[in-house]
Every structure is written in structure tokens, then in C-alpha cells.
Amino acid sequence: MSEQRISAGTVGYPIDRDRVHEVVDVVELTEGRHVPPRRKAARRLREGAPLSLRFSVQAPVAVFAERAELPELELGGERERFGELQLTEDNLGLWRRGIDFATAVGAEAILLLTPASLTPSPANLARFEAFLGAIDRSDSTLVWEPRGPWEHEHAWQVARANDLVLAVDPLRDEPADGPLAYLRLGPFAAMGSRVGIYDLERIAEAASRFERAFCLFDTPRALDDARNLKRVLAGDSM
To answer: Which 3 state secondary structure label does DSSP give 237?
Structure first.
């Protein structure tokens, strides 16, 4: 496994896997976002990638989603027993399947993408923290990206209190202190084009303050952005 401090990569595979592998240091796998693959399929995915490639994985969204928003999937149980951070055996079992997938691919982090419906109300916070206290973490690093009306400072406080790494777009918000930065650039970071040199330098500067940093692009030109960030990090001219 590579020991480099700053890893640049993509959310998912925007093009052919082998071509992505030639460029990136890390991939945030989206395969676990719905029903995570079983261990055999996960091992094939790991074996098909370079040994130096790092992975993070998305946790299954059906664990968090409002019942009315659950995707049309074969979840393997009664639908009303999934979602909304319920502590049912079905919901916790889906979480464990996500953990198994992450373990099988050697993921270094698991990303919790909570929906906009999980607002920072006291009731929602209580449900969220109860869920985090009940789940099997298997020594995994859990990263959290909240959607909806969260103030950055409040989200950071909740993350710190629950041993989560807060995912941050460094072009909008300051990453919180800690050994790992999870910098995640969404579709609006570049507005349809490549991320510019000035913003790439800002991302590189933010990442440089940490022991380790994952810089992941979910932008329209994600692979180009990851490649160009690596050039900036290497001190190459663009």
C-alpha cells in the first residue's frame, strides 16, 4: 500500500476502470450505496485493482433514508424495517453487509451520506447518535457527509462527539482538525468544466495540513481534476 500522505481520486468510476486506475490513488466505491456486493464479488473488485490503490466505500443509503424515499431494491426483508436509522435487525443487518463489503475490498474509510431529511433537530440527533452507538464499526474509519440545513460548525461538533470524520468541500468550508482529511468535491465545484488551477492549489494547501488526506472528485471532469491535482501536488506546471 502506498504511504503517500495525499491521495487524489474519483467518486466511482467515471470511465473504464483500467483507465481510471492509471491515474488515481484512491476511489470512493459506489457499489455499496444500495445493496452491497457479497464478499466474493468484493474480493474480485479488489483483485482487479492495483495493490497501491486505496478505496473508501459508501455505506448503504437505505439504512438512513426516510421510508417513503427507500430505493426500489430487493432489501431482503420487510421494507418498513429498513431506513430512518432504525435499530431493527434488518436495518442493522444491511449495515453489517456494508461493513463486510468494506472489509473485503480493504477500504480505509466508510462514507455515511445522510439525506436532507436528517435535519439537525434534537429528535434526529438523538436517533443518529443512538444508531452510531449501536452499530458494529469493526475499527473502520467512519466519514460523514450531512445533507440539508446543517451549519458547518454544528456538523463538526456532532462528528467530533461521535468519532466521525467530517467530509468537507475545502472550496467552501475549512476542514476540521484531525489525522485524516476527507475532501470531497461535488458536481458544482467546477460547474461543468475542469477545476481551475487556483482552486486546485487551494485544495492542495488544505490537504497538506493533515497526516493523511483523501481528495475525491465527483465533478463533471472528475478524472481530469484528479490528474491535475496530482500535478499540482508534484509541483508540475499545468
So the answer is: coil
Q: pLDDT (tens digit, 9 = 90+) per residue, 65-100?
A: 887 676 666 666 677 888 899 999 999 999 999 999
Rounded alpha-carbon distances, angstroms, from residue 63 to 115, 118, 145, 149: 10, 12, 15, 20
Domain at 6-234: CATH architecture: Alpha-Beta Barrel (3.20)
Q: CA 212, CA 4: separation in Å to the nearest integer? A: 8
What's the full length of the chain, in residues?
238
Q: What pLDDT does 61 receive?
A: 92
> Residue 187 contacts by C-beta under 8 Å, 6 or more apart in sequence?
218, 219, 220
- Note whether 104 and 39 are within 8 A (CB): yes
Alpha helices in the chain (DSSP H): 17-21, 39-47, 89-104, 122-134, 152-161, 197-207, 222-234
Any idea where the domains of the chain sit in the sequence? 6-234
